Amino acid sequence: MKKDLGDSIANKVYEYRVLARMSQQELADKVGVSKQTIFVMEKGNYVPTLLLAFRIAEFFEADVNDIFTYEKGVKQNGK
Q: HTH cro/C1-type domain: which residues (predicted)?
């Protein structure tokens, strides 16, 4: 059984998309996913694959680390 360490990936996809004056559908079409994928990613309910993260970064001509940030969780029992 996998242990949930509470790690996550925060993203700035919404900010980049709004600055580019794009709809979720337009971004989805550009990077090859559904509008729903963009929606749940922006809400923080979906962690993209590395491939998708790189596609999004390349589309916005940004470093992947500027858009996606690893957030280390707190291990259970404070360990």
A: 13-67
